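User: Second chain of the day. Same drill as before.
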Amino acid sequence: MPESVLVAFFIGFSTAYFAIFAYQINFLWEGRHMRLNRLLGACFAYWTLTNVKDLVLTVPGFYSRFMLDNIIMIDGWSFIAYTCMMFEITMPGWVTKKRIALLAIPFVLFMLVYILCPTTLVVDVYLAFLTIGGLSMLAIGYTKAIKYIKYIRNNYSNIEELDISWVKYVCIIAAILQILWLCASLLGKEISDCFYYALNIVFSQIIVAHCRRLKPIMLQAEEPGLVPEERIYAFEGVVEKMVEDEQLYLNPNLSLADLTRRLGTNRTYLSDYFTNVKGISFYDFVNSMRINKKSVPMIKEHPEYTFDYVAMQSGFNSLSTFRRAFVKFTGKTPGHYRETESGCRL
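Assistant: Same format as last time:
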């Protein structure tokens, strides 16, 4: 199969993919009023248009260095879409019209320079700018993702719709994607475009799969001056006893804020206690109680119970979270534990 035909297939398939999901996200998704969903829908609509533009390269005789340079100058604007998407996921509320305008300034300047002086040197400088800027964006996004993940684990016991651990892997794929795009731009080889379009679809599908039910939360700043330097915690031992005796851990949506209200303290103070005294996140503290105080006894005493039922009765919102927590705190899967502890093989 000629390379031009293969490229045409990948571009056509990619265009159809983005167009279909742009429609679904904008008009069919539940909860489309969410900022993240609106942004995702706008990005997919934009990427549909950029793919349509690439179809000109499939016209015989149009795949030239000049046409490729023009497309590179236009493609660079995707940096704004990727940056907005990455930062809105890791820093909910980050995207504003002012920030988008500021991001667009260097691209407007590069475009003006290229219009006045359409040379390869301008394109090469532009590629260097995009490479450095893209990798920097990914590094910042990765760092912010780690901070966000730490925050939700220190404040929530149910993170099913909050967890963005997947962003770490997306950053790696995005870095590979950027390298492929750079190679395709520099080499001018049609076959390299095929790999780029294929990986771009995989990259986008991962984002779609995780963003659909993601519920971003606004990170609250730490309350300064509320954690004493000597780190004396009046509620030490009290919070553990309260959570255990009142079985608060069975509440699937128990949060750090719930405990601070009951203890009459503040979030930063209590979070600092779990981190520096218990050496564990709030999320793991609650899940350890769910497993050790409820799940393990139920499995031992009632081998007839399904794991779905055990998970629900233990305060977990999903079987997958229950399984991960069970392995973490017992070293065994629920099934293996049941076999070894109760002698019951299902």
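Residues 106 and 129 are 9 Å apart (CA to CA).

User: Great, on to the next one.
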